[in-house]
Design a protein that fits this description.
six-stranded mixed beta sheet; ABC transporter transmembrane region fold; transmembrane; alpha/beta; Rossmann fold; elongated; nucleotide-binding; binds adenosine-5'-triphosphate; 2 domains; ATP-binding; four-stranded antiparallel beta sheet; cell membrane; single chain; transmembrane helix
């Protein structure tokens, strides 16, 4: 079997569940959340809780009156024969009718509660998910690349959207049981205060065990999170269309499934051991409750025989005891459940409270508009990486110039673009646009200046037009602008030949979706970059790798014509493209090793000249 073993090194087992997290800290926040989601449903829920709390004691009381009425009626009948007639049964029937009504009310209350609950669950689920997604929009790219953070996000999404309601329902359940217990206590104390004490104490050991195991369950949940993430990922690979081709052809299916099973087996072992311990302790300690109940039973029965209480009272006390015990156990498990929900909710709030850098700059323009882009001694190391991806980069590109970046895979070309677009901050040095540090630029003003297409551009499962329009949100729905951009990006011709033109659904996730060829997708992405008609810096990271040679040549002549007084930056492994640039930079292991135009670099006879000749020879 293929062994992916989720070991404890995947995620350190956190210390005791209670440590560091103040239990019940989140109950108040969950209440606020529910209140903001729907105050009316919450108020209704509170009212129903009170009613549901009082009803059981009322039913038990009426039950006792029925038995006493029966006993009284039997006694009268024995003395007076059937002479009493209807009058004999009247009080009895009235009590029976009342109990019927109370039971009907209890059932109505419970239905209404579950209706409120379903409605709240739907609304809360939506609200929490929107909160999670809104937060996601404020995060930095580095957050998404951090696996621990990603775990938190997945956990928050998967679990926490149902937890706030669960917490509220348990709070309601607790309140309902507390009200019931007070009302039972009020009736039972007439029999003996000791009975009330026994009732309360019998549930305590179960509670202690339950609280302990809830903490352990949460630790397990956290610990297995990386493994669960691997499982989810394997599900995607095995069962999604974009991976299906390779999975089939390489025969990866059984191998991946084996790994999937392996993870399950490992996780199941842990789960099972916890479940068994939890239930064994639950059963053992639950026996205490049973003993307490039957002890009380004997006591009440003897008291009845000794005529200290009536037969009706006996049935009432027994019912109270039995119901009371259920109420104690269910309050205790509600408390331990709340503890668990609190722990889970802590992951939601941990995620929602992830610190994000405040909006950095505020300036909409730089002091030297004709200065263009400058890199000044820029170095950058990816978070968690040992070696810098870029080191001591100095670079200057003026408006109207084009720059090509050349270098081996992994040299640092894309990283340079990520710094230029402020997706990352330099570890040292600075990047300037129009004489102003990128960090001081207002985000929107900066984004409006730059149009960029990365090699791993997004393929949105939307219609063609929107795929192009995504390049500029203002033109997302504007067919005239789609068309204009598509012409610049060389996509117009094939798009117009599609059955529904710009309204054709792309991708396979939705009905009638069409798949495009690699080169066609690239043309769509290129058109997307051209949507930024006001952008004066256009960055294309291997934009034509999947295009045929004719298309590539045409795009670049087109591109140069459009780039008047703009800055064009191209990363390409095709030297036919690269040679057209005004300035060419060769990047090697994070350093700039050569710079100049094509003729200059050929004259130097360095890496560029070697690579160029190598490729040129291939075409001869
Ligand atoms: N998100 C990331 N986190 C950590 N390291 C990264 C990340 N992206 C890239 N790297 C590393 O940084 C180095 C430079 O990568 P970069 O993507 O800039 O190379 P490139 O020159 O664009 O390569 P290619 O020609 O293959 O596209 C590589 O060693 C890569 O492993």
């Amino acid at each position: 079997m293929i062994g992916y073993t989720p070991t404890t090194t995947d995620a350190p087992r956190p210390e005791s569940g209670a440590a560091g997290i103040r239990v019940f800290r989140y109950t108040k926040r969950a209440l606020e959340l529910v209140w903001r989601t729907s105050p009316w449903l919450l108020i209704l829920l509170v009212l129903l809780t009170v009613v549901a709390g009082v009803l059981p004691a009322a039913i038990a009381y009426v039950g006792a009156r029925i038995v006493d009425a029966v006993v009284a009626a039997i006694a009268i009948a024995q003395h007076a024969g059937h002479a009493g007639g209807y009058m004999l049964y009247r009080p009895l029937l009235a009590w029976v009718a009342l109990e019927g009504l109370l039971v009907a009310a209890a059932s109505g209350t419970s239905r209404m509660t579950s209706l409120c609950q379903s409605l709240l669950r739907i609304q809360l689920g939506q609200r929490v998910n929107v909160m999670i997604l809104e937060k996601a929009l404020t995060l930095e790219l580095t957050h998404f690349e951090d696996s621990e953070f990603y775990d938190n996000l997945v956990r928050a999404r998967r679990e926490a959207s149902v937890r706030p309601l669960a917490l509220i329902m348990k709070t309601a359940n607790l309140a309902q049981n507390a009200i019931s217990l007070i009302s039972y206590g009020a009736l039972l104390i007439q029999f003996s205060p000791w009975a009330v004490t026994i009732l309360l104490l019998a549930g305590v050991p179960s509670f202690a065990a339950e609280a302990k195991f809830s903490g352990q369950a949460f630790q397990l949940f956290r610990w297995r999170s990386p493994a669960t993430r691997m499982q989810t990922y394997l599900e995607t690979v095995i069962a999604r269309e974009d991976h299906a081709k390779e999975v089939k052809l390489f025969g990866l299916g059984p191998l991946l499934l084996g790994r999937y099973r392996g993870i399950f087996d490992k996780l199941y072992g842990e789960e099972r051991s916890l479940a068994i311990r939890r239930d064994a302790w639950g059963f053992g300690l639950g026996l205490l409750g049973v003993m307490a109940y039957y002890g009380a039973y004997a006591w009440v029965a003897i008291a009845t025989v000794l005529a200290r209480i009536t037969l009706g009272q006996m049935t009432m006390y027994l019912a109270l005891f039995r119901n009371g015990q259920t109420a104690v156990t269910s309050s205790l498990s509600a408390i331990s459940g709340m503890y668990e929900d609190n722990l889970y909710l802590s992951t939601l709030y941990e995620y929602l409270e992830t610190p994000v850098a405040p909006p950095r700059g505020t300036l909409p323009a730089g002091p030297q508009p004709q200065d263009g882009i400058r890199f000044e001694r820029v170095s950058f190391t990816y978070p968690g990486a040992d070696a810098p991806a870029l080191q001591d980069i100095d670079l200057h590109i003026r408006p109207g110039q084009s720059l090509a970046l050349v270098g081996e895979n992994g040299a640092g070309k894309t990283t340079l673009i990520k710094l230029l677009t402020r997706l990352y901050q330099p570890t040292s040095g600075r990047v300037l646009l129009d004489g102003l540090d990128l960090q001081e630029w207002d985000e929107t003003a900066l984004r409006a200046r730059i149009g960029v297409i990365f090699q791993d551009f997004a393929r949105y499962q939307l219609i063609v037009g929107e795929n192009i329009g995504a390049g500029d949100v203002r033109g997302f729905d504007a067919p005239a602008r789609w068309q204009e951009a598509a012409e610049k990006g060389m996509a117009a011709q094939f798009v117009e030949a599609l059955p529904q033109g710009y309204n054709t659904q792309l991708g396979k996730w939705f009905r009638d979706g069409r798949e495009l060829s690699g080169g066609q997708w690239q043309k769509i992405a290129l058109s997307r970059a051209f949507m930024r008609s006001e952008a004066d810096i256009l960055v294309l990271d291997e934009p034509t790798a999947a295009m045929d040679a004719g298309a590539e040549a045409e795009i670049f002549s087109h591109f140069r014509a459009l780039m008047h007084n703009r800055i064009a930056i191209v990363i390409s492994h095709r030297f036919s493209t690269v040679r057209m640039a005004d300035q060419i930079i060769v990047v090697d292991q994070g350093h700039i090793v050569e710079r100049g135009n094509h003729a200059e670099l050929m004259a130097v006879g360095g890496i560029y000249a070697k690579l160029f000749s190598l490729q040129a020879r291939g075409y001869q």
